[in-house]
Design brief:
elongated; binds thymidine-5'-diphosphate; Ribosomal Protein S5, domain 2; binds magnesium ion; 3 domains; Rossmann fold; 456 residues; alpha/beta; 26% strand; nine-stranded mixed beta sheet
Length: 456
């Protein structure tokens, strides 16, 4: 019997070490080293299906390499297509990560059930075929070309692939799959690494795209192994607050497209619905004017949308004033409060301040500063910001409004749903013809000026 060798792997970054260490030498995380057995009889370097050694490659000049027009499989969901950079590339390995219960299986299942022309194999290591059927019924779509198999052994998966000869393979989830070549249990760093490497080889050899679903651990990385992110061609992250219905599909890495695209979905009774106009959804359709609400124009990736900042300022009930923030950086809000106090002269040190970004989204676009500060002020003076006014601008420490990126896109987004005025930083509009715009553009250089514009 071969001698069993063990190695220590960092569960955060995947680095290995021959001995235990309190702190990972590669990423510096504490207490992340776990012991695992090393592969004893891996099929390294050979074909994942046959185990045969792949054809030797020879160096070529870049100019001599034939450029193929990457054939892409068009996915039924336009949002998914956009995040993938225009469809699923043949032979690519895509990882969809997200917290448990966020809707990864639903997203994938919903898409593949709508592709009727391609043979698709869905390998589930988490749910039984019957559970999947229930879900498919709920989503309300059916395809005769979609095969489902519940399997956790990598070797058997390749046998199924041999039988079915699919044109697309889904593995849900990579953490439940184990290969015989590695002795450690499913979900461990070496298993995840081995299984994804073999699936990658299969994808590249056969030109069949493979979608892996992966869980995210509580630190937010895809179940330990960051290694997975190096192996795969694209990493898509599905995120959102479980208590809200909105989900964002973000691309973190994409070898075939831009990483600044994102897709927005809403979880409904019958699966996920695409949200093509997020602004409409994120704004409260309120007829009366309320104080403490300011509409900002923010960017997620390269996609602009309108979002509501809501603030409540009240006299502190206890000695120490409370500061509570959802969806926005709390340190940034404290900084904005200090600017209000020091530069604008509003006394809010003894007030409770609550801030909420509506819709359950987390925003860290500095251009939202201006709407946060205006919402706080509007609540403090108990005067509503007039309807149809939105704003975008970064606030500096001296109370100056600083220029922001992609101002044109923000303005054109603001023009859409019934907005009549947008407040923007001064000198941010160079080379833009304001007179052609339907919306009124107010330029401001200081926080006080913005207030005067709003509450004059
Ligand atoms: P799921 O896709 O199983 O999440 P993941 O694969 O990421 O773990 O689904 C997550 C949740 O979505 C589940 O708790 C129920 C909800 N859901 C709906 O609200 N509507 C639906 O039509 C479906 C299929 C699921
Ligand atoms: Mg699932």
């Amino acid at each position: 019997m071969a001698k069993v060798k063990t190695l220590w792997y960092c569960s955060s970054c995947g680095a290995d070490s021959p001995k235990w260490e309190g702190r990972c030498p590669a990423c510096g995380e504490w207490n992340t080293m776990v012991e695992e057995r090393v592969p004893t009889k891996g099929l390294r370097g050979g074909s994942p299906v046959t185990g045969r050694q792949a054809v030797k490659s020879v160096p070529q000049r870049v100019s001599e390499i034939k450029s193929l027009n990457e054939p892409r499989i068009h996915m039924p969901s336009e949002e998914l297509n956009r995040v993938l950079g225009g469809g699923l590339v043949a032979g690519s390995l895509v990882l969809i990560g997200g917290e448990p219960g966020i809707g990864k299986s639903t997203l994938v299942l919903q898409n593949i059930l709508s592709i009727k022309t391609k043979k698709i194999l869905y390998v589930s290591g988490e749910e039984s075929a019957r559970q999947l059927k229930l879900r498919a019924d709920r989503i309300g779509r059916m395809s005769d070309n979609c095969y489902i198999v519940c399997e956790t052994s990598l070797e058997s998966i390749f046998e199924h692939i041999d039988d079915v000869k699919p044109e697309m393979v889904i593995v849900d989830s990579i953490q439940t799959i184990a290969s015989d070549a590695v002795e450690s249990s499913a979900g461990s760093v070496s298993q995840v690494r081995e299984c994804s490497a073999r699936l990658l080889m299969y994808a590249k050899e056969s030109g069949v795209p493979v979608i892996l679903i992966g869980h995210i651990n509580k630190e937010g990385s895809i179940a330990g192994p960051k290694v997975l992110e190096h192996i795969v061609d694209a990493v898509l992250q599905f995120e959102g607050d479980r208590h809200y219905m909105y989900r964002i599909l973000r691309s973190i890495k994409n070898r075939f497209g831009s990483t600044s695209e994102l897709g927005i979905y809403e979880m409904c009774q019958r699966g996920l619905r695409e949200v093509t106009n997020p602004s409409e959804m994120l704004l409260t359709q309120n007829d009366e004017e309320l104080s403490g609400i300011a509409i900002g124009v923010t960017l997620e990736g390269i996609r602009p949308f309108l979002i509501e900042a809501q603030a409540l300022v009240s006299t502190a009930a206890y000695g120490t004033p409370q500061r509570s923030v959802t969806g926005f950086d709390s340190r940034r809000m404290n900084m904005l409060l200090a600017v209000l106090e020091k530069r604008v002269g509003f006394k809010i040190a003894q007030k409770d301040v609550f801030l909420n970004i509506a819709g359950g989204l987390k925003v860290n676009d500095p251009a939202l500063d201006l709407s946060v500060i205006c919402a706080i002020l509007s609540s403090n003076v108990d005067m509503a910001i007039p309807r149809g006014v939105c704003m975008s601008g970064e606030v500096g420490l001296s109370g100056e409004i600083r220029p922001i990126t992609r101002i044109e896109q923000r303005i054109s987004e603001a023009e859409k749903p019934g907005m009549n005025t947008i407040i923007v930083p001064r000198n941010n509009l160079k080379g833009i013809d304001v007179s052609r715009l339907k919306i009124r553009v107010e330029e401001v250089a200081k926080v006080e000026e913005a207030f005067r514009t709003l509450f004059a």
